[in-house]
From TrEMBL:
Pfam families: ELFV_dehydrog, ELFV_dehydrog_N. InterPro entries: Aminoacid_DH-like_N_sf (IPR046346), Glu/Leu/Phe/Val/Trp_DH (IPR006095), Glu/Leu/Phe/Val/Trp_DH_C (IPR006096), Glu/Leu/Phe/Val/Trp_DH_dimer (IPR006097), Glu/Leu/Phe/Val_DH_AS (IPR033524), Glu/Phe/Leu/Val/Trp_DH_bac/arc (IPR016211), NAD(P)-bd_dom_sf (IPR036291). PROSITE patterns: GLFV_DEHYDROGENASE. The lineage of its organism: Bacteria, Pseudomonadati, Pseudomonadota, Betaproteobacteria, Burkholderiales. This is Leucine dehydrogenase.
Length: 343
């Protein structure tokens, strides 16, 4: 097991990986602290029915490392970490399970701060919070999604300026996948800026609302990759930029909220070769973590809007360096993050 962890590609010098268990509640959790050079590690707690423990280790290491890059590039005074609970979020949840996680976080003394993620809810986090103060985004001060949407919007503006040399989104067509918490708000901003929307979702209600309120054209979940558009905005699923979709996409810009948009790292190269400007996901979708961090650290929120808007400046820096060095934007975004968090 030890050899497996240290040799795992995403181990990448994790500072600390804790296997936390508690007999009474049945807790089996892994807490990964990748890097705390910029501050305590922050990242959500995922609950998932992993097929094997090795799969859970791989997932937590990958996600934790990703948080270091995301938090650093967002200019936040926090490092990267993540935790996973091994179990079925539909059948295995109890208050005691999350209280036991809270006790494990307390033992880490603030080196890692958790938050909700896939498979966990604000109610679960409230149970964690009964045992520790190292929990962020408890939901009492609002949903981070509108800030993620704002970051995507200013990111799309920066991409349009860089790729198309335009200051306005007026008349541009955006193919937007996923009208959820982030996607709908992003779509509303795009519409207000004069863009035309083509949207897909599996939720009929969201589609109806987008048609009625935003005048969006609706297409099927697979047809979204074939439409004539200037921007592709993935706001639902991961890995939608893959060899199949890249053959079909007409858009010259990819700017969306979804995590892990590239199916494999070499899709960043493929985008560049195809003349598509890819706004790296962890740069453009950082508005939500900025909001959560301000809230947790009790930072006065008057500077928060400007902080989220600086995502546009970071992206412009990434785009310009990618052109100067003939590198994929995904690689340059990693370099920008590393320059900030590596001592
Ligand atoms: N909420 C945030 O602040 C935040 C922050 C960073 C990243 N993200 C990422 O952005 C994405 C959207 O987050 P969200 O909070 O809006 O989630 P959400 O669950 O509210 O919305 C997702 C939407 O996608 C739709 N959808 C699901 N499958 C689809 C498919 N095959 N085709 C088209 N639509 C489909 C759902 O019906 C839903 O409307 C996720 O990938 C999430 O990880 C969110």
């Amino acid at each position: 097991m030890t050899a497996f962890v240290f040799n795992e590609i995403n181990f990448d010098n994790h500072e600390q990986v804790v296997f936390a268990s508690e007999a009474k509640s049945g807790l089996k959790a892994i807490i990964a602290v990748h890097n705390t050079n910029l501050g305590p590690a922050m990242g959500g707690c995922r609950m998932w029915n992993y097929a094997t423990e090795a799969e859970a280790v791989r997932d937590v290491l990958r996600l934790s490392r990703g948080m270091t890059y995301k938090n650093a590039v967002a200019g936040l005074p926090i490092g990267g970490g993540k935790s996973v609970i091994i179990g079925n979020p539909k059948t295995d949840k109890t208050p005691a399970l999350f209280e036991a996680l809270g006790e494990a976080l307390e033992r880490l003394g603030g080196r890692y701060i958790t938050a909700e993620d896939v498979g966990t809810s604000p109610a679960d986090m409230a149970n964690v919070a009964s045992k520790t103060k190292y929990v962020a985004g408890l939901g009492d001060r609002g949903d981070p999604s509108p800030f993620t949407a704002l970051g995507c919007f200013v990111g799309a503006q920066a991409a349009v300026k860089h790729k198309l040399g335009r200051d306005s989104l007026e008349g541009l067509v955006v193919a937007l996948q996923g009208l959820g918490h982030v996607g709908y708000d992003y779509a509303r901003r795009l519409k207000e800026a004069g863009a035309k929307l083509i949207v897909s979702d599996i939720d009929e209600g969201a589609l109806k609302r987008a048609k009625e309120e935003l005048g969006a054209e609706i297409v099927g979940t697979d047809a979204i990759y074939d439409v004539q558009a200037d921007i592709y905005a993935p706001c639902a699923l991961g890995a939608t930029v893959n060899p199949d979709t890249l053959k079909r996409l007409k858009a010259k810009i990819i700017a969306g909220a979804a995590n892990n948009q590239l199916s494999t790292p070499d899709m960043g190269i493929a985008c560049r070769e195809q003349g598509i400007l890819y706004a790296p996901d962890f740069v453009i979708n950082a508005g939500g973590i900025i909001k959560v961090c301000y809230e947790y650290m009790n930072t006065p929120e008057d500077g928060m809007d400007a902080h989220v808007r600086r995502i546009a400046d970071t992206l412009t820096e990434v785009f310009q360096r990618a052109d100067a060095d003939n590198l994929p934007t995904s690689v340059v975004a990693d370099q920008v993050a590393e320059a900030r968090f590596r001592k």
